């Protein structure tokens, strides 16, 4: 491991000249917003169940058949509510991104998938049993009369699509698809939810015309689909047209790693913070059909930006050779891997491999006094030390301490550091003696990142002080 001591204090970066930011208050505000969101999530489920009670559903649950039918309707309402919440979580709403971060929104979206499907399936099965009991048919025979009800065929197709979406999202099945193939199937969930609406409005009385329940339910649909339309389609199209981003040039900076230099107009007005990422689409015949989340590797100026891409698959390989002049669509900026997410006075920053990209931009953008930030850069070999010169220069200019570690991971342990360092007794604590007073920013390969994160947790660092940027959602 090698060290670079902080540069001498520069007049413009002394603590007294830096803007005063109350990080604790900032964090408390964000935590309150996050709590409110979780409360809203559960409250919306409870409200869906309450719609059935407001309709007087409890009075119909007095017989066994009535109870089963009522329970089926209730679970259908809650399941649909969960799916609408999932759409909102996937809509990339800026307020959600600023509050919990895009990765947590996607993780919550994913966690709700199976329960929502089970509720919808239970809804269908219980209704078949309940109706079958009251008409004297067995549940299978009940499918025929049920399909004859208005809008029911659409609802059945919607359920089938939903099953396809959830099954293709199971980890083992998802691995068999390309990202784009899986994403295409996933888009069917919008169709599935839309197909379910007509039968909800026309069959049964819970959402009958002229009721408050119906207004509330339609408002939920408008919120979910409106968010998707606004933030996934309209805003990105407007931003793309407004900023007119094109490729200025591509430079190879290491084997399999290229920096793509971009130019555009009024880029500062995007309000991008160092450490954030965009979803990029390059309009060439070979690349227009796939988009990729990639962090900025430098803070943009008003007319230029830069990303650094490692060839990790067919898509990233193709975008690494796009010609100058290629038009680029953007979605973003996204992510909480920024100075704004800080909760503690100091920064401890660890990056490995291509994980250096957001870290370089974060370091450039973050506000700290000399001695308040420590950076550890990690590479398996000298070939992987790209952007390190730039990080060195920024660290020297801003007074951050910099450590570097090159070498393969120690097989003993398992360990996230080279064998030699592990043997010499180097630890996270020895590199970052002020870890408890720091926010820990981590970016790098998933298995490596998990080990560093586990180490930090074992040292007692609280969850809110750990900010991990994962490249594998
Ligand atoms: C927040 C974030 C920031 C990133 N920043 C950088 C960076 O600065 N530099 C860099 O080299 N790499 C970065 N990546 C990783 C980069 O996005 C993937 O390596 C790239 O998309 C892989 O695509 P592929 O077609 O080459 O490989 P594939 O083999 O097709 O994909 C490999 C994996 O990449 C992921 N992936 C692919 N496309 C997408 C997509 N559109 N949306 C979400 N995940 C996708 C999937 O998990 C997929 O399984 C980042 C990823 C994320 C999530």
Please report the total strand number as a whole number: 12
Bound small-molecule species: flavin-adenine dinucleotide
Number of domains: 3
Q: Please state the structural category.
A: alpha/beta
* Gyration radius, rounded: 26 Å
Number of discrete helical segments: 16
Strand % is: 15-25%
Point out poorly predicted stretches.
5-12
Helical amount: 40-55%
Task: Estimate the global geometry from the Cα principal axes.
Answer: elongated
Instruction: Please state how the strands of the largest beta sheet are arranged side by side.
Output: 1-10-9-8-11-12
Q: How far is the first residue's CA from the last residue's CA?
A: 31 Å
Q: Helix and strand string, N-terminal first?
A: EHHHHHHHHHHEEEEEHEEHEHEHHEHE
Mean pLDDT: 91
What composes the largest sheet? 6 strands, mixed
Would you mind describing this structure in some detail?
With 473 residues, the protein is of the alpha/beta class. It has three domains: 152 residues, Nucleotide-binding domain of ferredoxin-NADP reductase (FNR) module (Rossmann fold); 184 residues, no CATH class; 90 residues, Beta Barrel (Elongation Factor Tu (Ef-tu), domain 3). The chain contains 16 helices and twelve strands. The chain has a six-stranded mixed sheet, sandwiched between helices. Strands 2-3-6 form a three-stranded antiparallel sheet. Strand 2 and strand 3 form a beta hairpin. The two termini are 31 Å apart. About 2% of the residues have low confidence. Bound molecules: flavin-adenine dinucleotide. The site of flavin-adenine dinucleotide has 21 residues, from strand 5, strand 6 and helix 11.
